[in-house]
Structures are given as C-alpha cells and as structure tokens.
Write a structure and sequence with these properties.
The structure holds two protein chains of two kinds. Chain A is mainly alpha-helical. Chain A has two domains: about 1-60; about 70-95. Chain A is built from three helices and two strands; from the N terminus they run ββααα. In chain A, β1 (about 5) and β2 form a beta hairpin. In chain A, α1 (about 15-35) packs antiparallel against α2. Chain A is flat, with a radius of gyration of 17 Å. The termini of chain A are far apart. By secondary structure, chain B is an all-alpha fold. Chain B has one domain: Four Helix Bundle (Hemerythrin (Met), subunit A), CATH 1.20.120.80. Chain B contains seven helices and no strands. In chain B, about 40% of the residues are buried. Classes of the chains: A mainly alpha, B mainly alpha. Chains A and B meet through α1, α2 and α3 of A and α1, α3 and α7 of B.
Chain lengths: ~100, ~200
C-alpha cells in the first residue's frame, strides 16, 4: 500500500482510506461508550479513543511516522511539555 | 560574441519549511490546551452543572461535524498524495472537496450556535446570566473553544484555497509541494483539535 519514492516513503491511497475507516469506527465506538452507565468508563473511554484517533491522524495523515531527526524530536518534546504541565495543573486542582 | 547565460536558482529549504510549520502547529495546540485545562478544572468543581449544561447540546450535530472533519482530513491527505504523483487536476478536486466540507462544518456550527443564542444562552445574554455558575462556565468555554476552532477552520479553508491557486498555476507541483503540504498539515491540526473538543463538550459531561 505504501510506496518508495527517491528513498522517501510515500503513503498509498488505500492506507489513507483504511485509516479514515478506522477513524469512523472509533468515532462510533466513542459515542456508544459515552452512553454507558458506568461513570469512570463513560468519561475515560471517549478521551482514550480521542487520543488514539489523534495518533492515527498525526502518524498517517500528517506523515509523522516518516519524519526523522529534528522534526520528530521537536514534536515529541512539545507534546511531553503539554502533558507534564496538564498533569501538574490537574493534580493541583484535583487534590487541593 | 560573448553569450551570457543567466542561471536562476530558487532557494528551497524543505526541511526548514516543515520544521517551521510544526513549531507553529505546536503553538496552536498550546492555544487550545489552555481552555481544555480550564474545562477540566471547572468540571472537577462543578460536575453536576457541567453534566446538566452538556445535556443541552445536540450530540448528533457534534457527531455529524466530527464525521465531516475526519472526511475532510482524508481528502486533504489525498490532495498531497495526488500532487506527489503529479496529478494536478485530482489534487484540485480533493482540495475543493476539503474546503467544501469545511464550509458544511461551519454551516452546522452556525445553526447550533443560533439555536443557543435564540434561547438567550450566549455570553451577555439574559438566560446565560441566570444560569448556575458551573453551567455558565461550561457555555462560556463552549463558545470560546468552538468559536476559536471555527476561526481556525476559516483560516484552514483560506490556506487550502491559496494552495489550490498555486497548484492551478503550477507553482505547486510534483517536485515542489511544500506549500500544499503545510496547508494540509494545518487542516489536519484543526481536525485533531476537534477530535478532542467533541468528547469534552458532547460526550463525557
């Protein structure tokens, strides 16, 4: 499904279509689990599914899986910085 | 007779253009990260009020808009895949479909907002002022986050339209397509942001 072009990987049309189908399925799943009675799962599952969907978009649609070197590090460090600051704020508010 | 051959070279920095775009996208993520953190903080303090307020939003409109944006992300990715294969006309079709889907998203959002505004639920509205504090915060964040996202959808549509013009004139082509690629990256980021806004405002409260 993926092709090589001058040493660089080129994502095939079929790969994009498959990922899109997966994203549609995950959206359906998140709506379904949000209707469940169980409180913790009703909140955690849609957010976990959203994170999986975001990873698919970043990796395939935004070609992050074929990026190398500095770009990859910059994005990784940026995302980790957001996660750490979010976790610190959350812990501060939740356990104050 | 001396013949002067003028060599014109264009400076291209593909890696620099991509890195610059990703740095910009990270700042955009930070812009939305703040309101979502505020949401979490207030949702912890007012769980019942957030639940009551979220019940007032139509989950189906949120779902339809999610499916629209995910599909537009597919067509944006396909536009880049097409230009890399030298298919200019197909690229333009995919860009057109992406922009059209963005327009449909905004129309849905317009009707959703108007439904709330008609009932006085908007910052400064009478019904809004009478809401319990937690519900007012929920709708304040809803209007701010979805409004800011809507502005980003418009910016993305403009960026793609400009990339389409470059494609039509041949400036964007099989060998030099970073302008289109970066416009598509911006569009995907708008999609990623919505992927998180959807559960926060329509599903988990």
């Amino acid at each position: 499904m993926d092709e090589k072009e001058g040493g660089r990987e080129r994502t095939g049309y079929a790969t994009y279509a498959l990922v899109w189908l997966g994203l549609m399925g995950l959206t359906w799943l998140s709506v379904t689990v949000s209707g469940l009675e169980s409180g913790a799962l009703r909140i955690a599952a849609p957010l976990a599914i959203a994170s999986i969907k975001a990873v698919f978009v970043l990796a395939v649609f935004m070609h992050l899986r074929s990026e190398r070197g500095l770009v990859r590090w910059v994005i990784l460090i940026g995302l980790i910085a957001f996660l750490v600051s979010g976790a610190l704020v959350f812990s501060d508010v939740a356990y104050r | 007779m001396n013949e002067t051959v003028e060599k014109i070279t264009y400076h291209r920095d593909y890696a620099g253009a991509k890195l610059g775009m990703w740095l910009f996208l990270l700042t955009e993520l930070g812009l939305f990260f703040g309101p979502l953190l505020l949401y979490v903080m207030h949702a912890i303090r007012h769980p019942e009020a957030f639940h009551a307020a979220a019940m007032g939003l139509d989950k189906n409109i949120g779902l339809i808009n999610t499916l629209i944006l995910l599909t537009s992300s597919l067509t944006a990715a396909l536009s880049v895949a097409s230009i890399r294969r030298g298919k200019g006309e197909l690229t333009l079709i995919f860009i057109f479909v992406t922009v059209a889907l963005g327009g449909i998203f905004l129309v849905n959002k317009y009707f959703e907002w108007m439904g709330k505004i008609a009932h006085g639920i908007y910052p400064g509205g009478e019904a809004f002022a009478a809401l319990p504090p937690g519900e007012a915060v929920f709708y304040g964040l809803y209007f701010f986050a979805t409004g800011l996202h809507g502005l980003h959808v418009i910016a993305g549509m403009l960026a793609l339209a400009i990339a389409a013009a470059f494609t039509a004139t041949g400036t964007v082509n099989k060998r030099d397509f970073v302008k289109l690629e970066n416009a598509a990256l911006y569009w995907h980021l708008v999609d990623v942001i919505w992927i998180f806004l959807f559960p926060f405002f329509y599903l988990i409260s």
